[in-house]
């Protein structure tokens, strides 16, 4: 493709555009992420993959922008850095098709609209504007085409690597079990080195850091030890996600598990239910995935969550906008009340609205608790006694949001 050099005046305009792109406002980046994730529910539902796409969006903007600051209007080479290559690895390890990369085209459209806004702010000269937009359109389209070609090549290489060896066999066998395929139980057990009889508890461990495999391995081992089992099944689902099954129960005491496991900073853990047999193997895993997705959806700051603790919250927050409306309607000003007042109400509800037991559990005087409950009634749209269930649910949503 011939690539004519822009006029000096337009080169300077491109440089100014690129400088603005390099220093993109936070709201522009949020708009880009939201549009890309809305176009691909598969990506949006996976917190690790969504975070990787967000990093890649920013890396591509910065890459194109800095290239045009250095040499305005010149061809921009493909971005073959760690962020887009991480996308390639994740697409393969999750068994996704290349259609997921269509999200890049959505990102291209959003970036182009933003760049047109910038261009119209920089010049009103028709000739300059026409040349500026023509050059930038060709530049962005060529850059995205080349970057996608590089990702596609990396996907082929990753797929070839993962189709060899025991990891691929385990991953394939797990996929068959999760899909409910009629694979004989003993054959599956032989390939996994894990018995499918008896109870299972599944966990999903992940990190936003794409280079976290070793830390995830250590966390999986520590959880198995905390569960008191000698054997477990661990599968690398992606570069920063590990699936775990233990033949028994992971203690449902979050503080005890965190104390025993000491997961590194940045490692998150979602634990499923405990259930028996091949069906239990599947159900526990899907419950762990539901827990993971809820933590991601609410951007929960908590490092560990059990399905048994979040099942209702997961249902309530499936539609985040309606969940936010529910919390605002039920709690009103109480949503921003002091933590000790909210904790007192949570505890009071947890002990079946018994003030003496709640005070004892909070290590506070009963009169202090009653004053806090009275203050809660002042802030709530309806008295607590008339709306206990809804308040309990709304407070649980706040707790997982870290509010």
TrEMBL record:
This is Transcriptional regulator. Residues 344-395 form the PucR C-terminal helix-turn-helix domain. The lineage of its organism: Bacteria, Bacillati, Actinomycetota, Actinomycetes, Mycobacteriales. Belongs to the CdaR family. It comes from Mycolicibacterium poriferae. Residues 187-293 form the CdaR GGDEF-like domain. InterPro entries: CdaR-like_regulators (IPR051448), CdaR_GGDEF (IPR041522), PucR_C-HTH_dom (IPR025736), PucR_C-HTH_sf (IPR042070). It comes from the Bacteria. Coiled coil: none annotated.
